[in-house]
């Protein structure tokens, strides 16, 4: 804040003839406020990074299944309260009951340090398309909603 006050006071002094006219001083004041706002946000906001010291590594069951092509973190609230990694494997082989070769699969993995503790989730499908190329987790915001009705 001290730096801002010093710069603002120096801009308010009488300008040299032909230089630093009033619109320029206003623009400089806005730029300075914007720069300070960006600096404040970058110093006070926190993000997440990939933990390289304690990674969670999971291994797929089948080679070539593209296990981990899409990954999402899910919090299970029914039953036991725990976090799960949902990993998609779009080229996973079909179960023996189906008449197709590659249906894709989705795996539920607990957040542990074990490599092979993922379990295939039972989802029914009979198409030949890559399923689970992307994993989407849906969240719900506030309980309020607005309903707009057209024509009545």
Automatic annotation (TrEMBL):
Keywords: Membrane, Transmembrane, Transmembrane helix. GO terms for biological process: cell adhesion mediated by integrin; cell-cell adhesion; cell-matrix adhesion; integrin-mediated signaling pathway; leukocyte migration. The chain crosses the membrane at residues 30-50. One of its GO terms (cellular component) is external side of plasma membrane. One of its GO terms (molecular function) is integrin binding. FG-GAP repeats lie at residues 53-118. InterPro entries: Int_alpha_beta-p (IPR013519), Integrin_alpha_N (IPR028994). This is Uncharacterized protein. It comes from Hucho hucho. The lineage of its organism: Eukaryota, Metazoa, Chordata, Craniata, Vertebrata.
């Amino acid at each position: 804040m001290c730096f801002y006050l010093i710069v603002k006071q120096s801009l308010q002094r009488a300008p040299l003839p032909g230089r630093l006219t009033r619109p320029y001083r206003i623009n400089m004041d806005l730029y300075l406020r914007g720069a300070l706002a960006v600096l404040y946000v970058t110093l006070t906001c926190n993000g997440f990074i990939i933990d390289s010291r304690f990674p969670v590594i999971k291994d797929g069951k089948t080679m070539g299944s593209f296990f981990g092509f899409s990954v999402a973190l899910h919090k299970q609230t029914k039953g036991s309260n725990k976090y799960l990694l949902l990993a998609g494997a779009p080229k996973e082989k079909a179960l023996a009951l189906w008449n197709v070769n590659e249906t894709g699969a989705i795996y539920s993995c607990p957040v542990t340090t074990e490599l092979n503790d993922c379990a295939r989730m039972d989802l029914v499908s009979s198409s030949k398309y890559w399923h689970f190329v992307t994993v989407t987790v849906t969240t719900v915001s506030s309980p309020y909603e607005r309903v707009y009705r057209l024509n009545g």
